[in-house]
Amino acid sequence: MNDLAGFLSQVGIFSLLSAEEVARVAGYLAPVELQPGEVLFREGDPGDNLYIIRTGQIRIGIRLPDGSEHRLAELASGDFFGEMSIFDHAPRSATCRALAASSLLALSRDAFSAIIAEHPRSALSLMYRMLNVATQRLRDTGEIASDMVLWGEGAQKRAVTDELTGAYNRRFLEDSLDGYVAEAAEKGRPLSLAMVDLDHFREINERHGHEKADGVIKAVVGLFRTLLGPSAVVARYGGDEFVLILPGLDIGAAAGALGRVCAGIAGFDALTVADGTVTRVTASMGVASYPADAPDVGRLRTTADAALYQAKEGGRNRVVPAGGGAAVLPLGSAADATVKTPPRSIKEKNDAIANIISAITGRHRFLVLGHQSPDDDCIASMVSFALVLRLFARQAAIYFGAEPHEHFRYLLDICRFNGIRLVLPGAPLPAGIEAVVLCDTPKPAMIEASEAVREVAARPEVLRIEIDHHFGADSGYIGDPGYRLVAEASSASELVGHLLMKLQHRRDVLERFQVADLFPRNVVLAILTGIIGDSQMGKFLKTRRERRYYEAFSGRFNELLSRSTVKRSNFFTMDEVFSELQKLSVSEEHCYEALYARRHTEGSIGVVAFSAAEMEPLYATCDDETVVTTSRSVADQLAEDSGRLGLVVYHDNPARSDLVQFRVRRASKFKDYDLRNLLGLLGIANGGGHEGAIGFRVPRSEIGDFDAYVERLLARIEEALPK
């Protein structure tokens, strides 16, 4: 029974039950054994049981008019089916047969009635999950092959698909939208709802006839499915009106995905008449997000509908997000507004910066892109933004279409010793990319990207952040609405610097992520490289504002350089800058290798621990900042090496403080433990971080025997981790 309860606890419909409730319900299940090819039931058979697959494989299909069978689904261990028989004696709507020897568990209607009578709380949880998971399965299937399915209260037969397109129909939408929003609330995830109208479709109907118009409708539904992916719910609301449910997408991601759909609709040759002329079809879309724009289903619909009205009033052929976001216009459309323009107000620029900061703190895996044949500013802005991500312990990768010129070797060394992955054509992309950052790229056609990169960037769940200073001519937006830091500046690198200056005032964010210095030397050097490269050592700075930024960063650069070298701190040529930077990268390499060479493993934790005496040679050759940045990268690498955690312990420079620093990082594949729990467990007051990375400090006087202290710490951490 314990094995059975353990299996059931992994099945979706039991996820809301406690272990005690699962064990109790298990007693109501009856075993069913099937041989390969054996039919469990056929269409039209009476239905009284819900079935759960314990082992084996089951095929669900329906009879076609020619007598053949059409496969609807193949189910395996942990899946369930036949749930509607629990609520009504209606006949089976499909045929079920075993593809292999299979062991099933049956829950009869009578047994479920007994659960309702004896354990009502458990029964309610089961019913909720049955309908919830069934909805998910229908959504993931992407189409309903049967004309009729059993759905909803009373199990009355109702059609849920549109006959012309195969999309869901209005009845399905009305019945299921509450459930999708409830699921989003349960999982703590956003959900976006879009209202879509094809523009001037009545004229298309009248000019080309119903048959051609129907072809357009079917083609549009096909685009929805192709560009939005299987998680999107496509419903034809009536005529040329559609409603799209986008689970998991906030307003920015949803508007970006819909912008690509809008461009796709405007771009295909939907109607070609005899003389060869083409009639273009466009769409207007309004989108709102739960819970950010509306707290419930009713207001979500009215908010999306109001945004659709704005899209029509604003000129059509566009996506308007709720909440005052900028409209998304498809690239290549006739609308001049697709050309990049400076922000209309300081607020619009600050809102974009605030949204990008939220993306940095809320997402974990970033891919950074630039333009073809990248120049100084392009590479420098990519590297500087990736360094900012690393300050917040985010995973960052930069894609290059070819090996960068030796001229930029020092910037690539900075990436190497800060844990930034460099990806060249043919190399696999990092898994799980959540956001793409596009730097210094005037328009989509200029993006340096392989087909694999473009496929990732086009995914609706992937956020697109844009940082650029090009305007006018044939420029065009690439980033998602609200995430476009596109403003007047001497360079894209300067805009990264502007982002950091705004971040300085977010003490809550800096304290949460334990970022002590937003302007470490490498960040400043990367930003200044871009500013110097685009302005030719300041010769081409046009405004007092640009001059102010240039002087601020060059002053910071000189300050850092003078602390790190005995050479004069003023620079006069790019070659001098590169020469000094190359010397600094050698220092970082020495520090990284010295730390990493001392690695060892204790249980499931990769460890590097340096006593005060062992740190003396490092501080003789490396400055404090080099130790800080490289220790963070070493902790990351130790975590990936061990597959669980990495720990780096080192003593501060005694000339600066009497503290011992502890940095703990979690491997990218190990997500079963929130590292912040360790701070409370260890009674740490001087520390902080987020679920995947923490840092804390302990005075030397409280440590005593350093080796014994580290051993005790490792034992306590190991004990706290899930087995």
Description:
With 723 residues, the chain is α+β, with helices and mostly antiparallel strands. Helix 1 packs across helix 2, helix 11 runs parallel beside helix 14 and helix 12 runs parallel beside helix 18 (574-596). The protein has 22 helices and 29 strands. The protein folds into 4 domains: 2-145, Jelly Rolls (Sandwich), CATH 2.60.120; 170-329, 2-Layer Sandwich (Alpha-Beta Plaits), CATH 3.30.70.270; 346-564, inorganic pyrophosphatase (n-terminal core) (Alpha-Beta Complex), CATH 3.90.1640.10; 598-720, Diaminopimelate Epimerase, Chain A, domain 1 (Roll). The model is unreliable at 139-159, 272-278, 331-337, 535-542 and 564-574 (pLDDT under 50). The strands form 7 sheets. It has a 6-stranded parallel β-sheet with strand order 20-19-18-21-22-23, sandwiched between helices. The protein is globular.
Q: Examine the secondary-structure arrangement and name the CATH architecture of the largest domain.
A: Alpha-Beta Complex
Distance between the termini: 23 Å
Q: Provide the CATH superfamily of the largest domain.
A: inorganic pyrophosphatase (n-terminal core)
Estimate the strand proportion: 15-25%
**In terms of structural class, how would the helical and strand content be classed?**
alpha+beta
The overall number of domains is 4
Largest sheet: 6 strands, parallel
* Oligomeric description of these chains: single chain
The helix content, as a percent range, equals 40-55%
Number of strands: 29
CATH topology of the largest domain: inorganic pyrophosphatase (n-terminal core)
- Please report the first level of CATH classification, the CATH class of the largest domain: Alpha Beta
What Rg is obtained from the alpha carbons, in whole angstroms?
Answer: 30 Å
